Known about the structure:
This protein is mostly helical. Helices cover 61% and strands 0% of the residues. The chain has a domain at 31-101. The longest helix has 18 residues, at 38-55.
Amino acid sequence: MPDDSRFIVGALDLMGQTPFRPGSPAGWPDTAEHWGGADALYKRIEWSNTVARIAGPRVNPVELGDAVLGSTFSTESRKAISRAESDVQGMTLLLASPDFQRR
């Protein structure tokens, strides 16, 4: 993962969560209408794919899922990720999975 904070700020901005600018004192919206639309999903998948291309070749996505998600790492996600054609594709699937997106 790049140490350049512009990469992180850019990704958060793309997904509508620019640091220190939530849009209201209540923070960023946490409802499906703001996060469940096609555009929001597309942006999360694009972010996942970018991160996967950077970190994917160095990380086993199933092992990372176990380490990060623990018991919330579902059998279905584990199976899909383990069947990926490459670690990069597996990492994209992990980061875009419902398990990882869970709040």
